[in-house]
Design goal:
By secondary structure, the protein is of the alpha/beta class. It has 17 helices and 7 strands. The structure holds adenosine-5'-triphosphate and magnesium ion.
Length: 379
């Protein structure tokens, strides 16, 4: 029988598979029930979507909230946004409420439908539909849900930073949700700290100051170790002495921890106990798998960003140190310009005066570059 690897690293997790995040779940629930908006932010792959799904599920099961998750990843037009909202409702509404909303949509005459032939299909076929009034109607759906007998909707807008690609969209969203205090709670999740700050912390932006900030941090080593060990055991293996180096390499990064655990598990047969050799092979495989991704990411940086990252690795988080500047032919000015950009895009983070690269394996990759071993896979 084919065994299923218990470590998932390529898509959001089922609520019961999530490590920790209990406090964040509680905070999100409390705010949702209190009718407050939350902005959830974290670097890429820290588990935002997994957490949103967990909160939506708990909200539905324990509080009767109507859960709606809208993914705004890379939207770039009003039509895109209308399609994403329509499909989100289509996927998530059930039963009587679904029928009530479908009836309402039909009556608008705007081409909206929860069925297969909704506005998405019509727009793709080139129908003459103005997506703006349709989007207005979709943004008002929480009011219709309530009329349809629903309690309160919990609406999570994932990858919210991408609303900035559509001019005026944050204002449009605000103009609707501000009248929905009694019928809907909103969570805005995003991964680019700079963009999320622009949207919520600038006085001239429509959503300024409107949402409670919740940040997802790294997982603790002990939580990761316990989870990995247990899953090895329940699948008839032992993580053995590999657990220490695995946890150290992951540095609390949720997705990197799962990726490393996945590779390690795959190399250990049932009934076996992982050794350091298993670990070394797993780590090498993970790096080989990530090489194209890191290479593309690296090419996306300009020279001063590349050098700043290298200096930061070489000098333990202090890119201004003289030795680093000399070694990489970097000036303080270049660092001063590069750092905010790297912080804004979530490549690095600051804690206690130190700068850290968010992705521990990317940091290892850059360290190898500094050591004169640019091609990890060929070592
Ligand atoms: N709390 C957690 N426990 C275990 N694994 C986690 C956790 N959070 C994230 N992960 C790992 O990270 C992966 C990505 O999770 P998820 O898609 O929820 O993150 P995300 O922040 O939404 O990512 P993206 O930035 O790509 O949208 C999961 O497949 C899982 O391997
Ligand atoms: Mg996500």
């Amino acid at each position: 029988m084919l065994e299923v690897n218990p470590f998932i690293y390529s898509h959001p997790l089922a609520p019961e598979d999530i490590i920790d995040r209990d406090e964040e779940t509680e905070t999100l629930m409390q705010n949702a029930l209190g009718g407050h908006y939350v902005r959830l932010f974290a670097p890429r792959k820290y588990g935002k979507t997994s957490l949103l799904r967990r909160v939506l599920r708990i909200g539905e099961q324990t509080e009767g909230l109507i859960p709606i998750l809208v993914d705004l990843y890379r939207v770039s037009s009003v039509a895109d946004v209308a399609i994403r909202f329509e499909r989100a409702y289509s996927r998530q509404l059930k039963g009587k409420l679904r029928n009530a909303i479908e009836d309402f949509m039909q009556k608008t005459g705007m081409g909206l439908s929860l069925g297969a032939f909704g506005i998405s299909a019509k727009l793709q076929l080139g129908a003459q539909i103005d997506p703006l009034p349709a989007l207005h109607a979709l943004l008002d759906l929480p009011l219709r849900l309530e009329e349809g007998g629903g309690y309160r909707a919990l609406i999570a807008l994932d990858e919210f930073q991408d609303v900035d690609k559509v001019p005026g969209l944050d204002g449009l969203i605000r103009s609707h949700i501000q009248f929905q205090g009694e019928v809907a709670s909103y969570v805005f999740a995003g991964s680019e700290p700079g963009m999320m700050r622009q949207l919520f912390e600038r006085k001239d932006r429509p959503l300024y100051g409107s949402a409670v900030p919740v940040r997802l941090g790294r997982l603790t080593d002990s939580d990761i170790a316990a989870y990995v060990s247990e899953r090895f055991v329940t699948t008839g293996r032992s993580a053995g002495e590999a657990i220490g180096p695995l946890v150290a390499a992951a540095r609390g990064h949720p997705q990197r921890a799962m990726l490393l655990a996945h590779r390690l598990w795959a190399g250990v047969a049932e009934g076996e106990r992982a050794t350091l050799e298993h670990w070394r092979q797993a780590a090498a495989q993970a790096m080989a798998e990530l090489e194209p991704e890191f290479d593309a990411q690296w090419r996306g940086f300009d020279t001063s960003e590349q050098k700043t990252m290298r200096a930061l690795i070489a000098a333990d988080g202090s890119p201004y140190r003289a030795a680093g500047l000399r070694r990489f032919e970097l000036t303080k000015d270049m660092v001063r310009r590069a750092l905010p950009r790297l912080l804004d895009t979530g490549e690095i983070e600051r804690s206690g005066g130190q700068h850290t690269i968010v992705d521990p394996l990317f940091a290892d990759w850059i360290a190898a570059l500094n050591d004169g071993q640019p091609r990890l896979t060929e070592r």
